[in-house]
Design brief:
This protein is mostly helical and about 375 residues long. It has one domain. The longest helix is centred in the last third of the chain and has 29 residues. The radius of gyration is 20 Å and the shape is globular.
């Protein structure tokens, strides 16, 4: 019993998600419509990527990359900028969630072995913001983009036209914030890398590309799952024991909660009363409660104002930590780091949440009104 209690305490984001999902089930009894809540492609991609990242970690791949980065970038500002913009660029084609799962572990290794863990909260928060705001310029950058792009049959040029100004403003804001990091010289603790295998690194790299192809809807998730799971079993079966599966189950719980919320008449009626006239603000507020993907799916049933909906569900990632599921991933990774490094009060989980809220609120105050004005120009 003590182990169970300790598990839920350690994984409080997972606990909150499960409790919220269970409570919502009292308002919407379990039925066959629950099966439609889950984005199987997203869940499969996240789980497969978790396995691949665990494989990379086991061969000290991130240590290897970290050493190369430190040789290239000579100070704290430049290397943190590098980590943030790797995540930003990756999100353009690899989706925001996938980008975070890939590059948060790299950021941790780089900062740990350059004695710069004091920047870990800042870097994780900015990587999360960069993954969301970087991904909003392409239809495949964020999951809600792909849904809206397909649902409304938006032309590619029109999509870029709608999102260009908000993306440019967001990019400038990210660069400005990063300029406040001091140019402290870097030194890498040159520890011997004993487990690195070039062969396995190449194999895992190929598996990583296969996962991206699932995100791009080129390969079905079940084919990729068979290929990746069999390959990982052959290469390193112990990898499966090191994967944090609570991330996948946290997403499952949030899908249940948001799916049920969208079926509660009072919630739907409230949205219907505002959506047509106030699409932008309704979508933004909705994202703060049920996150951006469920909001895009729900509100698309009530409005044809796709431009306002599209911009709003993207910039709404600047809000509370649960407004985007990528925020859950970043917080979960920080909790793991905080536990491993035994952070004290100065860098506690609550410090991270407070800092994340501050950055997002300030960012929202600037970006959200400007993004709305860009729609009036468009």
């Amino acid at each position: 019993m003590k182990k169970i209690i300790a598990f839920f305490r350690t994984n409080f984001i997972f606990t909150v998600a499960v409790v919220a999902a269970i409570i919502s089930c009292f308002f919407v009894p379990i039925d066959k419509e629950y099966l439609g809540y889950f984005d199987i492609d997203t869940l499969a991609c996240i789980t497969l990527l978790l396995v691949i990242i665990a494989g990379f970690s086991n061969i000290q791949f991130f240590h290897k990359v970290a050493k190369l980065l430190v040789k290239k970038f000579k100070n704290a500002r430049s290397i943190i900028l590098c980590l943030i913009f790797i995540t930003y660029v990756s999100a353009l084609v690899n989706a925001n969630d996938m980008s975070l799962l890939t590059f948060l572990p790299l950021a941790y290794i780089v900062l740990k072995y350059t004695n710069n863990l004091k920047y870990i909260a800042f870097t994780f928060i900015m990587q999360n913001i960069a993954s969301n705001l970087g991904g909003m310029i392409t239809p495949i950058g964020n999951p809600q983009n792909l849904y809206i792009f397909s649902f409304y049959n938006i032309g590619l040029f029109e999509f870029f036209k709608i999102m260009a100004i908000p993306t440019l403003i967001a990019l400038v804001l990210i660069i400005v914030v990063c300029m406040f990091v001091k140019k402290e010289p870097l030194e890498f603790k040159d520890e011997e890398i004993t487990k690195f295998s070039k062969t396995k690194a190449i194999i895992y790299g190929i598996l990583f590309v296969i996962t991206i192809l699932v995100v791009l809807r080129v390969i079905p998730w079940w084919i990729a799952s068979i290929i990746i799971l069999i390959t990982m079993l052959i290469c390193d079966a112990k990898t499966f024991l090191t994967v944090d599966y609570t991330i996948t189950f946290t997403f499952v719980a949030f899908f249940i909660f948001s799916g049920n919320l969208s079926r509660i008449p009072a919630v739907v009626n409230l949205m219907e009363s505002f959506i047509n006239e106030y699409t932008f603000i309704t979508a933004y507020i909705s994202c703060q409660f049920i996150s951006n993907v469920p909001t895009a799916v729900l509100l698309s049933k009530f409005t044809n104002n796709y431009a306002h909906l599209l911009v709003s569900v993207n910039v709404a990632s600047l809000g509370i930590i649960f407004s985007s599921l990528s925020g859950v991933i970043a917080l979960k990774e920080y909790i793991k780091v905080a536990k491993k490094e035994k952070f004290r009060k100065g860098r506690s989980v609550w410090y991270y949440i407070g800092m994340d809220t501050l950055f997002n609120v300030v960012g929202a105050i600037i970006l959200v009104p400007l993004s709305y004005l860009s729609l009036l120009i468009w």
